[in-house]
Amino acid sequence: MLLLMDRLIPAIARERLVVCYIRYKGNNSSDFVNEVCKLVRGTGYSYNPKTKEEKIPKNYPTDYFSRFSVDRVLTEHLIN
Fold first, then answer.
1. CA–CA separation, 64 vs 77, rounded Å?
2. What total number of domains does the chain contain?
3. In terms of residue numbers, what domain contains 25?
């Protein structure tokens, strides 16, 4: 989920979504606001869907994400 978010939603849009949510619900709406902010912050990763070019920063946790395999058939069923 984090990889998809990083690939499909630009960091500035993620930041603005969190700010809008906090403003809508109020600052004391959740105890996990700081954790959510850490999850959605910009990582430096960028992807251009037209050229299918991706820029992976030096400290990007690709090893961490590669530990979990994604069932391709299940994903296709969930999306379709």
1. 25
2. 1
3. 2-79
Distance between first and last Cα of the chain: 17
Widest CA span of the chain, in angstroms?
42
Tokens of 57: 């920063």
pTM: 0.59
Q: Containing H/E element for 47?
A: strand 46-48
For residue 65, what pLDDT band results from cuts at 50, 70 and 90? low
Residue for token digits 């809008």? Answer: 20
Question: For residue 40, which of 70, 10, 73, 20 has the smallest C-alpha distance?
Answer: 10
Backbone angle region of 45, left / alpha / beta, with phi > 0 → left and psi within -120 to 50 → alpha: beta
